[in-house]
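Please check this chain.
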Amino acid sequence: MATALWIANVEVTDAEAYGRYAKGAGPAIAAHGGVFLARGGRHVQLEGRDRSRNVVARFPSVEAAVACYNSPEYQAALDHARGASVRDLVVVEEAE
């Protein structure tokens, strides 16, 4: 089974609330086999919308990433990001 990348492009509008999201999201992602490859940091926007925060995590599969997203633990964390950020999130299966 191919691994998958969880790619989030985020503009944080409320740093305090988003910090609460990050505190809960990290353990939920790890519990589903997710490993962070990038969390913020330097980036160069070549096309499309520029968002100040970009996050990439690798999961064992697309199904594991989607299960993480739908888990009660991640959804509880996500409640803090709603209204505190503008986000795009996609899960992409890696090429073998």
Observations:
- The longest helix spans residues 15-31.
- The chain has a mean pLDDT of 96.
- The longest strand covers residues 4-12.
